[in-house]
Structure formats: C-alpha cells, structure tokens
Here is the input.
Amino acid sequence: MRGLMQLNTRARPHLLLWSVGLALLVAAFASFTGPSTGSVTAAPAPQTASAPRPSDDECLACHSQPNMLLSVGEDKILLTIDKAAFEESVHGKEQVACADCHADMDGFPHPDYAKDGLREFNYSLYKATQSACQSCHEEEASNAMSGVHELTLETGNHNAAMCADCHNPHYAESAAGREEVPDVCARCHSDIAATYKESVHGAALLDENNPDVPNCIICHGNHNITDPRTVEFRNNIPLLCARCHTDASIMDKYGISTNVLNTYVADYHGTTVTLFEQTSPELPTNKPVCTDCHGTHDISKTDNPQTGIALKENLLGKCQRCHPDATANFPDAWMSHYDASPEKYPLVYYVNLFYKFFIPAVIGGMLVFVITDITRRAINRGKGGAH
Ligand code: HEC
Ligand code: HEC
Ligand code: HEC
Ligand code: HEC
Ligand code: HEC
Ligand code: HEC
Ligand code: HEC
Ligand code: HEC
Ligand code: HEC
Here is the structure.
C-alpha cells in the first residue's frame, strides 16, 4: 500500500497546492495557523461555542474546488470532496452532515492536524472523528476497540487499520460485500491476500462468488479480530474448519466428506489435541491441527496435481516438520481421514472384522457352554431328586 509501511517522521511546514482563486482567500486565514508542529492541538477557536454548526454548503464552498491538494510528509492528499458522489453515498443519503463527523471543525482555520506523514495525518483525523462514528455505530466501534488493529494503533504503530481504511467515509455506498473483503485487507496484507486468492476457498469466492467458502472475516472477524498466533486460536482451529466441513447441507454439494473432524479426533494426533484443550487450555499443543497438513491461506484441493496432499510426497513434507526422520513410506502409518475398508487399509479392516466376529464367537461359545452345563446339572439334580 502506497507509503504505508514507511512512516515519515520529519516535520515539514505544509504546502498547499490548489486552485488559484481560493488560494488568495485562504492565504488570509492560513497565516493564523502558522507552521505545523506535527502534534494535534486545538487551534485558537475563531468562533464562539454558541456559533451555529456549519452547513455542508459552507464546507463545500472551499472543498468542492478541484485539485485541492495538501502535502503531508512526502505524500499529497486530495482535499476536494465530490459533492454529487458524497450525496449518493450511504452517509449522504442518510443526510449525515460534514460537521456530524468533523465535529471539531466550525469553519476555517481548522484545528492543527499532524502533517508530518500520511499515517500521522490519518491517525489524527481518526481520533477526531472516532467519537462520532462511535455514537452512530456503537456495536461495531466497541468491537473494534478490543481488536488487534486498535491494540496495534495504541502501541504507536499507526500502520494498523482505522475505520476509514476499510470504509470510505465520504463515498462508500455500503460496507464491503463478501467478495470485496479480500481486497479491503489486501491494501495492507497484500501477500496473504494474493495467496488466499489462489487457494481452493479464495478461487471459489472470486471466480464463482461462491457463498459457501470462507473469506478473511469468516475466519478472523471484521472488527473484533484476535491475534491468530495465540494458543487459544490454534487449539480452536479444528472447530473453526468444522463449522462448515461437518455440515452436510454445504459439503454434499461439493462431494466432500463430512467425516473429517471425527476421523481427525479419533486418530492419535486429534485425540491428544482434544484432551489437551480440556485439561490445559492455556498450553500450546505440539500435535498437528488441520492447517499443519492443509495449509492456511494456501489450502488446495487434496487431489491438486501440484500441491495436493493426497500425493504422498507432498504430505511427507508436512509430517517431516514434526517427525524429522520420516521416510517416504511414513505417511502410510496414518489412515488419513478414512475409516478402514476393504479398499482402503484392508489389513486394518480385516483385523477389525476378525475381532468383530472372533470375540463374539468366543464369548458366545463360552456362554452356550456355561448355559448348557448349568441346564444339564439342573436336569441331573432333578432326576436325582425323583429317586
Ligand atoms: C475557507 C475555506 C475552507 C472552508 C470554509 C473549510 N475548509 Fe477545510 N480546509 C481548507 C484548507 C485550505 C485546508 C488545508 C489544511 C489547512 O490549512 O488546515 C483544509 C483542510 C481540511 C481537512 C483536512 C485536515 C486539515 O485540517 O488539514 C478537513 C478534514 C477539512 N478541511 C474539513 C472541512 C470541513 C468539514 C469544513 C466545514 C465545516 C471545512 N473544511 C471548511 C479550507 C476550508
Ligand atoms: C461519516 C463521517 C464523515 C462525513 C459525513 C464527512 N467526513 Fe470528511 N472525513 C471523515 C474521516 C474519517 C476522514 C479521514 C479519512 C482518512 O483518514 O482517510 C475524513 C477526511 C476528510 C478530509 C481530508 C481528506 C481525506 O479525504 O482524507 C476532508 C477535506 C474532508 N474529510 C472533508 C469533508 C467534507 C467537506 C464533508 C461534507 C461534504 C465531509 N468530510 C463529510 C469522515 C467524514
Ligand atoms: C480491518 C477493516 C475494518 C475496520 C478497521 C473497520 N471495519 Fe467496519 N466492517 C469491515 C467489514 C469487512 C465489514 C463488512 C461486514 C460483513 O460483511 O459482515 C464491516 C462492516 C461495518 C458496518 C456495517 C455493519 C453490518 O453489519 O453490515 C459498520 C457500521 C462498520 N463496519 C463500522 C465501522 C466503524 C465505526 C469502524 C471503526 C471504529 C470500523 N467499522 C472499522 C471492516 C472494517
Ligand atoms: C450521524 C450518525 C452517523 C455518523 C456520525 C456516522 N455514521 Fe455511518 N451510517 C449512519 C447511517 C444512518 C447509515 C445507514 C444505515 C446503516 O446501515 O446503519 C450509516 C452507514 C454506514 C456504513 C455502511 C453500513 C452498511 O450496512 O452497509 C458504514 C460502513 C459506516 N456507516 C461507517 C461509519 C464510519 C466509519 C463513521 C465515522 C467516520 C460513521 N459511519 C459515522 C450514520 C452515521
Ligand atoms: C491500513 C492497513 C491494514 C488493513 C486495511 C488491514 N490490516 Fe490487519 N493489520 C495491519 C497492521 C499494521 C497489523 C499489525 C501487524 C504487526 O503487528 O506486525 C495488522 C494485524 C492484523 C492481524 C493480526 C496478526 C498480525 O500480523 O499482527 C490480523 C489477523 C489482521 N490484521 C487481519 C486483517 C483483516 C482480516 C483485514 C481486512 C478485513 C485487515 N487486517 C485489514 C494493517 C492493516
Ligand atoms: C479458512 C480460514 C482463514 C481464512 C479464509 C483466512 N485466514 Fe488468515 N489465518 C487463519 C489461521 C488459522 C491463521 C493462523 C496462522 C496459521 O496457522 O498459519 C491465520 C493467520 C493470519 C494472519 C497472521 C499471521 C500471518 O500469517 O502473518 C493474518 C495477518 C491473516 N491471517 C490475514 C488474513 C487475510 C487478510 C485473509 C483474507 C485475504 C485471511 N487471513 C483469510 C485462517 C484464515
Ligand atoms: C465458511 C465455510 C468453510 C470454512 C470455515 C472452511 N471451509 Fe474448507 N471448504 C469450504 C467449501 C464450500 C469448500 C469447497 C469449495 C469448492 O470445491 O469449490 C471447501 C474446500 C476445502 C478443501 C478442499 C477439499 C477437496 O479436496 O476438494 C479443503 C482441504 C478445505 N476446504 C479445508 C479447510 C480447512 C483446513 C479449514 C479451516 C482452516 C476450512 N476448510 C474452513 C467451506 C469452508
Ligand atoms: C495429519 C495430517 C492431516 C490433518 C491433521 C488433517 N487432515 Fe484433512 N486430509 C489430509 C489428507 C492427507 C487428505 C487427503 C486424503 C486422501 O484423499 O488420501 C485430507 C483430506 C481432507 C479433506 C477432503 C475430503 C474429501 O472428501 O475430499 C478435507 C475437507 C479435510 N481433509 C479437512 C480437514 C479438517 C477440517 C481437519 C481438521 C479437523 C483436517 N483435515 C486435518 C491430512 C490431514
Ligand atoms: C505439528 C506436529 C506434527 C505433524 C505435522 C505430524 N505429527 Fe505425527 N505426531 C506428532 C506428535 C507430537 C506425536 C506424539 C503423539 C502422542 O504421543 O500423544 C505424533 C504421533 C504420530 C504417530 C504415532 C507414533 C509415534 O511416532 O508416536 C504417527 C504414526 C504419526 N504421528 C504420523 C504422522 C503422519 C503420517 C504425519 C503427516 C501426515 C504426521 N504425523 C504429522 C506431531 C506431529
């Protein structure tokens, strides 16, 4: 994303490059503001507190001028607001006024925003408009307050997402649709988004607008995003995937087995993870969860000829991360998600079958023997009594 990852910390007096006519008018006012100090402080209030709130037309008298540019650090910001597009936006249609969000602005000159870098400028506007967003969108805002982006912002890293990074406050017609979400995140997480788009889930979302596959926010949430590298998140991955992968009303459409969680929990890897969650939820498991074998943002169809893990050599690489001595036939030690059958794992199947008949036969035989023996003794005793 443009200029995002390189913060410019040098303070510079800001430059204003916009249409000549208004420049003269503004020059008269601009002399009040002086050079920017890079910190957010209130400018001397030019009007009294009881002054009426400025109308949109008052703001637009200046801000509808074309090519109204402001330099912040090494970047330039367009200050021109397209009146028609604003009126067509979700906020314009609801008659939310400029001053509803820019509640700290009562005309010109404006409060002294940070102008030493793009992200510092964005952050100062974020702080200035935050309580406005919050008062109309209480639930979303309060969720965002505990999310990983807000926590990152609070550490002083202003590259993390603020409301306006995901929602254009002036022109958006609605919140991002399902299939647009990866592009919202891609503004900053471009590598992950590119990987995701190639995955079985991402390709289905983008090529077919498939409503059944997860986009970023299905797995991470939109406002209350948690850090996915925690123990809790990792231990919960089998259930995250199982939400869809055990639901036959979804999976039958794609001919995908819904037995994947059961068979996973039944094997030695899954059993230990399940027990682990119950006994020590705070400790990391060293057993594989779904993503250790299938990948996370790069999940592919298991029979994909290049990357599919139904291919033994692809799967072996995954096992070797934890079983470094594993050799070519090591994956055979594992039954994958299959229950044993005459086609898959016949040996296991017939051994199971053998026990299924052998054990009842032995026990049944013993029972028959014991019962006939008791009966015989009873009859004998009866005969003896008759004597
Ligand atoms: C007299 C012309 C004028 C009027 C009226 C005006 N602005 Fe501005 N606005 C400017 C100029 C010039 C800048 C460039 C930065 C500066 O000098 O503060 C600016 C910058 C801004 C910024 C960027 C932050 C900043 O201060 O740099 C916002 C947001 C803004 N104006 C919103 C508004 C709103 C909302 C209104 C109506 C309440 C409004 N403006 C009225 C001229 C005006
Ligand atoms: C829904 C709330 C909201 C409304 C309504 C709103 N703004 Fe903004 N405005 C913001 C936010 C938030 C930012 C910061 C954007 C960012 O950081 O990218 C902003 C930024 C700006 C900027 C700086 C340039 C930019 O786009 O970052 C100007 C100028 C501005 N607004 C003027 C206006 C004017 C004029 C109106 C009315 C026609 C208006 N705004 C209506 C929330 C709003
Ligand atoms: C990291 C990106 C991101 C940030 C930051 C963010 N949002 Fe959202 N927001 C989204 C996405 C994506 C959706 C679409 C939700 C969906 O489809 O379920 C959304 C939906 C919404 C909605 C519509 C609610 C709905 O149920 O459709 C509102 C209102 C909203 N956000 C407000 C805010 C406010 C206010 C902030 C700042 C406090 C904010 N958002 C910060 C990504 C974000
Ligand atoms: C004066 C009240 C008000 C303020 C302030 C306000 N909004 Fe809104 N916003 C609304 C209304 C009303 C709607 C349309 C109804 C709805 O969907 O909630 C809306 C819609 C939205 C949507 C689209 C929701 C959807 O369902 O598609 C988003 C996203 C959003 N606002 C974000 C913001 C952000 C971010 C801010 C702060 C920069 C903000 N709003 C400030 C009233 C407000
Ligand atoms: C404006 C840039 C920006 C946008 C847009 C954005 N993020 Fe982030 N995100 C960040 C930054 C910066 C961090 C903190 C990175 C760090 O600490 O290394 C972060 C952290 C995260 C984390 C925590 C893991 C980590 O690396 O710290 C997740 C998960 C995450 N974002 C998901 C999303 C999702 C999902 C979306 C889209 C809905 C999104 N982000 C949109 C900038 C952004
Ligand atoms: C199917 C669920 C799923 C989807 C869809 C998904 N993620 Fe993730 N994501 C995870 C899991 C699980 C992790 C934990 C780390 C791991 O196991 O690789 C993670 C980790 C992350 C991280 C932090 C760790 C890292 O690798 O840097 C970020 C940031 C992130 N995801 C962003 C996104 C974005 C952006 C999208 C959409 C383009 C997305 N995720 C889609 C499940 C998902
Ligand atoms: C929101 C529901 C949903 C979630 C959550 C989800 N998936 Fe999927 N997944 C699907 C759907 C639907 C498909 C089929 C897509 C297609 O074939 O077009 C699929 C396909 C797959 C495939 C390909 C199967 C094949 O070989 O054809 C694998 C593997 C997979 N998912 C693993 C996972 C893992 C691992 C997780 C958790 C990290 C996960 N999925 C989370 C819905 C989901
Ligand atoms: C130890 C590695 C491993 C773990 C852990 C694992 N899988 Fe698999 N999974 C595989 C392999 C290998 C296949 C391919 C089976 C085959 O066709 O031979 C597969 C196949 C699948 C398929 C495709 C089934 C079909 O009908 O085509 C899905 C969906 C799936 N796994 C989901 C999951 C989920 C969800 C989890 C976690 C609950 C999980 N897997 C855990 C290795 C693993
Ligand atoms: C994330 C690490 C991890 C991955 C990946 C992994 N395993 Fe394991 N595996 C373990 C751990 C830890 C144990 C010991 C479990 C216990 O003792 O409770 C184990 C135990 C086993 C056992 C039981 C016998 C033994 O050596 O203790 C077999 C067989 C096995 N794994 C096969 C596989 C196969 C095949 C793969 C690849 C498809 C695989 N594992 C991938 C961590 C992993």
User: Anything to note?
Assistant: Residues 200-201, 204, 210, 212-214, 218, 237, 240-241, 243-245, 250, 254, 256, 290-291, 294, 299, 301-302 surround heme C (ligand 7) (CB under 6 Å).
